[in-house]
Design brief:
Belongs to the sodium:neurotransmitter symporter (SNF) (TC 2.A.22) family. This protein is about 75% helix and about 0% strand. It has about 450 residues and is mainly α. The termini are far apart. The structure holds tryptophan. Tryptophan binds next to α1, α2, α10 and α14.
Length: about 450
């Protein structure tokens, strides 16, 4: 495929919104709060922020430059930049990671549809916090319901993917992203004004470093990669649709800032509310689904209509955020099959959707009927989450930083980052230094420490 056949994002804003749409998703609103809750709050957040700015942003710039320079799907990108070498495995591992993430991510995305349905049919009204917990458990362990929502969600993603890059991805992001932001802000105000919310705010702001261990570092790093959509060629694939004029460093910075703000705000919605109604912050993946309905009940207890409107809006928002992310995951695998195996785009997308429906249903069942079946002590859902977020993505990040820092011709790196010298990028040297030394060393140390080799 030559340069000119590939579609492009239409505008500068479109580029940022589509990338931010990929980054902002369940990772911020669902995964970030429960990881924060599991790892003790503020201290985790500080380490997480360190990972975002020190590792995440430079690696994002490198994914961007690899994608835009090669103008190909992620596996082909490495083949073009490093022909005949094993670097292409980095791209292939990314495609596999994307496929696995999409499978279990769609399960949770499906849950958001169930909650939209609950909200629409006024199913939250009059329930106690305990009832929210038990109804989530009943729902998520049911063999059928989550599977149906998951299939619907993947079909929605499929539909946007086959409409193509500019029409599908860019347009939907442009409308959805700003909407999402406004609703989040409103909900923060509601949550922090609940009675007893201050303990939740303290949990978010007052670090307790006594709880920090190697696992906290690995989780924070994994969460940073997951949330920024990094380490598997997702942003690399998007960057292959960027124009020559896109400022890669600035785009990375904007995406990083937007993503971080949304995650932290999600924390400010969840924890004040959780502490207010007595839900444990370490409830795990169910956290937002058992906490949030309480916010709507309590914050608007006198005005049921408002409770109704806000609960519907919130879950719609969450589904939308998830959709812009599933689109980006799906696109990586679809572009790979389409360009490498000469499938039509349509057919490639069908394979991806079908495969993810199959694996997604298995993941969903692992939370209910097949709960007893475990590998390394983890059910399939947890296993997919662990293997992708805590192993494949950081490993991908490690390879990407070494590739750009050491292997790739510096002329290419320089001309991509500065757009052939037309941009002044004061942090250029810093980016290269991080990619060469800091990122590889830091990621390796966190891995080695987690494997217990340092002790
Ligand atoms: N970043 C998205 C979120 O926070 C999820 C996601 C989309 C992702 N594309 C990805 C995660 C690529 C890892 C890699 O919800």
């Amino acid at each position: 495929m030559t340069k000119n056949d590939r579609a492009n994002f239409g505008t500068k804003l479109g580029v940022i919104l589509a990338s931010a749409g990929s980054a902002v998703g369940l990772g911020n609103i669902w995964r970030f709060p429960y990881e924060t809750g599991n790892h003790g709050g503020a201290a985790f957040i500080i380490i997480y922020l360190g990972c975002i700015f020190l590792l995440g942003l430079p690696i994002m710039v490198s994914e961007f430059l690899i994608g835009r320079h090669s103008r190909a799907n992620t596996a082909r990108a490495y083949q073009k930049l490093a022909p005949g070498t094993h670097w292409r495995w980095v791209g292939r591992m990314g495609v596999l990671a994307g496929f696995l993430i999409l499978s279990y991510y769609s399960v949770v995305a499906g849950w958001t549809l169930e909650y939209i349905f609950e909200a629409l049919t006024n199913g939250f009204s009059g329930k106690t916090p305990d009832e929210f917990i038990s109804s989530f458990q009943t729902f998520s362990s049911n063999p059928w319901r989550p599977a149906i929502w998951l299939i619907l969600f993947l079909l929605g993603t499929h539909f946007i993917i086959v409409k193509g890059v500019e029409k599908g991805i860019e347009k939907s992001s442009k409308i959805m992203m700003p909407m999402l932001f406004i609703i989040i802000l409103i909900l923060v105000v509601c949550s922090v004004s609940l009675p007893g919310a201050s303990r939740g705010i303290e949990f978010l702001l007052k670090p307790d470093f006594s709880k920090v261990d190697g696992n906290v570092f690995l989780s924070a790093m994994g969460q940073a990669f997951f949330s920024l959509s990094l380490g598997m060629g997702c942003l690399c694939t998007y960057a292959s649709y960027f124009s020559k004029k896109t400022n890669l460093t600035k785009t990375a910075f904007s995406v990083g800032i937007i993503d971080t703000i949304v995650a932290v705000l999600a924390g400010f919605i969840i924890f004040p509310a959780a502490f207010s109604v007595g839900i444990q912050p370490d409830a795990g993946p169910s956290l937002i689904f058992i906490t949030l309905p309480n916010v709507f009940q309590q914050a608007f207890s006198g005005v049921p209509l408002l409770a109704y409107i806000f609960s519907v809006m919130f879950y719609v928002l969450l589904a939308v955020a998830a959709l812009t992310s599933t689109i980006s995951l799906h696109e990586v695998v679809t572009a790979y099959l389409h360009e490498e195996f000469k499938f039509t785009r349509h057919r490639a997308a069908l394979f991806v959707t079908g495969g993810c429906i199959f694996l997604g249903i298995l993941c969903s069942l692992s939370l209910g009927v097949t709960k007893g079946i475990t590998i390394f002590g983890l059910g399939m859902f947890d296993l997919f989450d662990f293997v992708t977020a805590k192993i494949m993505l950081p490993l991908g990040g490690l390879c990407i930083s070494i590739f750009t820092g050491w292997y790739l011709d510096k002329k290419i790196v320089w001309s991509e980052i500065t757009n052939d010298g037309t941009l002044k990028v004061p942090v250029y040297k810093l980016i290269i230094f991080i990619l060469k030394y800091i990122a590889p060393i830091a990621i390796s140390c966190i891995f080695i420490n987690e494997l217990g080799l340092l002790k």
